[in-house]
Design brief:
InterPro entries: ER (IPR020843), GroES-like_sf (IPR011032), NAD(P)-bd_dom_sf (IPR036291)
Protein name: NADH oxidase
CATH architecture of the largest domain: Alpha-Beta Complex
Number of domains: 2
Number of strands: 20
Organism: Bradyrhizobium jicamae
Number of helices: 13
GO molecular function, one term: oxidoreductase activity, acting on NAD(P)H
Radius of gyration: 22 Å
Keywords: NADP, Oxidoreductase
Oligomer: single chain
CATH superfamily of the largest domain: Medium-chain alcohol dehydrogenases, catalytic domain
């Protein structure tokens, strides 16, 4: 085992030539300041938000492997249209990985830092696809006894996003919500939160297999967007739950429009009087992902009382402030093995993360294909 003074880190580089390069670099581990600790990273998930930086819209059909088994290099072509959006990152070698967990092996001089020595902690702050991470005490959370790094690796992005959705629902005066790509790890957490908190949730999935996953954990309203009866099924679920806010992970295509149309149909079924401007029930779709990169199509058959916007976790957390963030973090910590448990299909080393066969699986972002990286895997 290394002394932790330096370690491997996964880097993503987009060259001005239009070539994306993924590689491993040996980087020194910064000495911890008073309020910092050094963590040996043992678990860090590959989330869609990580793939946005790591690979983005690169054409992986052009990808090729070079280098050695210890130091693999992946190169792929970035489409010209994407290059224009990414001018700010050209020719910069960037670290990746939003969140992770591991063991504190060195600390700064503050009491709060020293108290974490030898403890298993989870972290947020980027650059997690690395063997050793120097990080501020305020960006780590000590994991409860009996919790492994793998248990705590996905403690931030998905759990706080799911909690952020129900918080946003309450703050904007809605009583129930709709979620797409609903059988994902995040979607399963959201179901557990809503069941526990008594919130109506309409789940939109794309297959019977995904519906089965949700029914097994107690989901009541699950509709399949590929079924001929989709719009009718969705409208019926909206009538029953009264859901008027949706969080959409798909982004592209017609789904957001279909949700708003069904919300309007549901509102009209319970309306007391007709209005030529549509119902006065406010309907909101927040797009928080782009599993479909096509344009979002709106066929405005849902009156004039509606909104479509973007939703991101970080601005939401900034809005609610430190005390509320602390409350949400505490809930995550106490329910890590239940409500907020994540499931992984494969644990890979940094080198294995850069194998084309593995990239082909995790870059599809499919439900039930979540990868966990252990940078210190032997």
């Amino acid at each position: 085992m290394s002394d932790g003074n330096s370690g491997l880190q996964l880097r993503t580089l987009l060259k001005k030539s239009g070539e994306l390069e993924l590689s491993l670099a040996n980087v020194p581990t910064p000495e911890p300041a008073d309020d910092e600790v050094v963590v040996r990273v043992e678990a860090t998930p590959i989330n869609p938000s990580d793939l946005g930086l790591l690979i983005g819209p690169a054409d992986m059909s052009t990808a090729r492997e070079s280098g050695s088994s210890d130091a693999p290099v992946i190169t792929a072509k970035m489409p010209d249209a994407a290059m224009r959006m990414m001018a700010a990152r050209l020719d910069q070698s960037l670290p990746a990985g939003n969140e992770g967990a591991g063991v504190v092996i060195r600390t700064g001089s503050s009491d709060a830092a020293k108290a974490l020595m030898g403890k298993t902690v989870s972290m947020i702050g980027g650059a997690m696809y690395t063997q050793y991470r120097t990080i501020r005490v305020r960006d780590v959370m000590e994991l409860p006894d009996g919790t492994t790094a793998a248990d705590g690796a996905s403690w931030f992005v998905n759990p706080l996003t799911a909690l952020g959705m129900t918080e946003t629902m309450r703050r904007e005066n809605h009583k129930a919500l709709v979620h797409t790509a609903a059988a994902s790890n995040l979607g399963q957490m959201l179901n557990k939160i809503c069941i526990k908190d008594g919130i109506g949730l309409v789940n939109i999935v794309r297959s019977k297999e995904q519906a089965d996953i949700l029914h097994q954990i107690g989901a009541k309203y699950v509709v399949d967007s590929t079924a001929p009866s989709f719009m009718e099924d969705l409208t019926n679920a909206l009538v029953e739950t009264g859901a008027t806010i949706a969080f959409d992970a798909i982004g592209g295509g017609k789904l957001a429009s279909q949700i708003l149309t069904s919300m309007e149909m549901a509102a009209n079924k319970t309306a007391k009087e007709y209005s030529r401007y549509g119902s006065n029930v406010y309907k909101q779709v927040y797009i928080y992902g782009s599993l479909d990169n096509r344009p979002t199509e709106l066929s405005r058959a849902f009156g004039l009382t509606w909104g479509v916007g973007g939703w991101l976790l970080t601005p939401f957390l900034q809005k609610i402030g430190p005390a509320e963030i602390g409350r949400l973090r505490q809930r995550v910590a106490s329910e890590l093995k239940t409500t907020f448990a994540s499931h992984y299909t494969q644990v890979v080393s940094l080198q294995e993360t850069l194998q084309l066969s593995n990239i082909a699986v995790y870059n599809k972002r499919s439900t039930g294909e979540k990868f966990l990286i252990n940078p210190n895997k032997g």
